[in-house]
Amino acid sequence: MADCNETIRQLYAYLDEMLDEVLKNDIALHLGDCPDCQGRVEFEYSLKLNIRARAQEEPVPDELRDRLLGCFNLDLEAE
Q1: In sequence order, what DSSP letters do the residues of 26-45 get, joined into one string?
Q2: pTM metric for this prediction
Q3: pLDDT tens across the length of the chain (79 residues)
């Protein structure tokens, strides 16, 4: 069964539904027994939803978009 360390380590993969069923179920069981981890998951999930909503409301400035894409070494001219 997952513990607090494993739950926090896998937090974003859990929220993004990128875990295999066994680990996902282990973390879900841990969350049912651990109010501290449950609170952390709820906070991070709420934050993720708020960021997504704000990103849809406000366009990303071109300069920021270019800098972010540059971090991934993407060719901006190819678009």
Answers
A1: HHHHHHHH-HHHHHHHHHHH
A2: 0.67
A3: 789 999 999 999 999 999 999 999 999 999 999 999 999 999 999 999 998 888 788 788 889 888 888 887 755 555 4
